[in-house]
Amino acid sequence: MMERRFEAYKSIVVKPFFRDHFARLDRQIVLIDALQALNAGPSAVNDLEQALADILQTFRPGKASWLGRILSRRVDRILFAATKADHLHHESHDRLEAILKRLTARAIDRAEFAGAEVDVLAIASVRATREARVKHGSEMLDCIVGVPQAG
Fold first, then answer.
1. Are 63 and 114 spatial neighbours (Cβ–Cβ below 8 Å)?
2. Is 137 left (phi over 0), alpha (psi -120 to 50) or beta?
3. What is the pTM of this model?
4. What angle do CA 110, 86, 48 make, to 5 degrees?
5. What would the pLDDT profile of 117-143 be if each residue is shown by its tens digit?
6. Exposed, middle or buried by CB within 10 Å (0-12, 13-18, 19+), for 38?
7. CA–CA distances in Å: residue 10 to residues 4, 15, 55, 56, 122
8. Distance between CA 109 and CA 59 in Å, rounded?
9. Could you give the angle at the alpha carbon of 54 between the alpha carbons of 41 and 34, nearest 5°?
């Protein structure tokens, strides 16, 4: 019974949504919470990498052309964005981007081969921290400090 309901959900909800909305996109931003997977351990990172590979197979990457815009859309620009970058000092953002680039390497290679432009970026939609320097012994260390919630 559950399998029948799931198949009905896919045919009634998922496929029409994909056909009517998702398939017409020519640019895509993929938000990824890589820090949560990193904090959860290697198995969570492997699960995230596999899930991204599966999800990104639905993209139709490629170079957009005037004829392609009429016949079928191609995603010609993809941005993979690691969220919650404010949880790291800005000097570590390049490391987070490198980790994300590694997690999405298969999708990036496939998209670039098809002619799409791909970029990776560390972002934060809300700034929940601020950067500071603290003295530890004789060293000054870069760190982040949580911003108290108003009220």
1. yes
2. left
3. 0.73
4. 35
5. 889 999 998 888 889 999 999 999 988
6. middle
7. 10, 6, 15, 18, 33
8. 13
9. 30
